[in-house]
Design goal:
Oligomer: single chain
Strand content: under 5%
Radius of gyration: 33 Å
Helix content: 55-70%
Mean pLDDT: 83
Number of strands: 0
Structural class: mainly alpha
Distance between the termini: 92 Å
Order of helices and strands: HHHHHHHH
Shape: elongated
Largest sheet: none
Number of helices: 8
């Protein structure tokens, strides 16, 4: 999915699709355009498409193979692009995720319950060959001649 196709979406639909507000996307795009250098062969995807690809990877948990098929590029290109976009966003220090400690406050109380599910031997009567055959014989009525 290219950026040109979602550019006309309403703001609510844009957020539903990308996971970020349109203004946030535009800020991210400015950071990415400023943070990444242009040299060598021009990329097949625009910076907006590269950012959209990264957001798709984060939001939908799609594999790089599936994203590569959607955009018509190789899997290695998707991996390299996602890493470059992530690095540019992190270097800007405008966009970051809270650390583990921020997500889990220290006053959280954990309750741990352990369940023993180990196997225990079950006592069963031993099968004696003679007793089963004798039981079968006694069950069969004898013929009287």
């Amino acid at each position: 999915m290219k950026y040109e196709t979602i550019e006309q979406l309403r703001d609510t639909d844009f957020k539903r699709l990308t996971g970020v507000q349109r203004e946030t996307f535009e800020e991210m795009l400015k950071v990415v355009e400023k943070g990444l250098r242009d040299f060598g062969r021009p990329p097949k995807l625009s910076r907006a498409d590269q950012l959209l690809m990264t957001l798709m990877y984060w939001r939908e948990y799609r594999t790089e193979f599936h994203i590569a098929q959607s955009y018509g590029v190789s899997e290695a290109t998707v991996c390299r692009t996602i890493r470059k976009i992530e690095d540019a966003l992190v270097r800007s220090k405008k966009f970051r995720l809270p650390g583990k400690k921020a997500l889990q406050p220290s006053d959280t109380i954990f309750e741990v319950i352990l369940v023993d599910v180990s196997e225990q031997p079950v006592e069963r009567p031993k099968k004696a060959r003679n007793s089963t055959t004798a039981a079968k014989r006694s069950a069969i009525p004898k013929k009287r001649s």
